[in-house]
Amino acid sequence: MKEEKVSNYIKLCDEWAEKFLRMDKAELMKKLPELKQEDGYLKIVHFGVPFGVRESDGKIERLDGKTEANATEMLNIYTLFGYVKEQAFFMDKWVPFADLRNARPFAPAYKTGVTDVFAETFSGHAEELRKAFMKLNGTELPQGDVGYQINAFACEPMRFYFWDRDEEFEAQGNILFDYSATDYNHVESAVSTAEMGVRRLAEVAGLPLKGKSFGMS
């Protein structure tokens, strides 16, 4: 079942590659000034990792040479290109996922698959989390045992807060979005973007994910 699910995501990526070929690249770069057109790619950075969308066929490559781009990364990039609104702008209005436009129906799955995974993965590992944020050029925040702002994309900063476990409470995590997030991408992509953030932090920290992650791969 899982292989079938992954293959469906890959099929969706192939469909988005075709859509990308039909997009007006100059218009897209106006909406997303962070894009760079060079070496036959449109280049973009997602949670600290450089990616390139090939202009020849619309396929996405991870450009740091470490691993291939996974389905979550690719769909986050494709849907950003497909859903960004012409007048999207950073509002500096920070809200939890459930308070984004049209997000509430997805909130229970988001808690299970993202913030619970974030808390469980880094429970007892606050120092590893702090170092991971620093490696991703995060900006430290005053709230939480560990709190940092990092960029999902240059247009989409996110704030991660973590409280480690103690004698009374389990570890807890929270992630805030700028309210503009759904002007840049589909609300369901906010879920997979946050999921990718947690996965990237775990990858950088060298820790296995714990909990019921979505596991799109």
TrEMBL record:
Q: Which residues form the DUF3786 domain?
A: 37-199
Give the matching Pfam families: DUF3786
InterPro entries recorded: DUF3786
- This chain belongs to which protein, by name? DUF3786 domain-containing protein
What organism, scientifically named, is this protein from? Blautia intestinalis
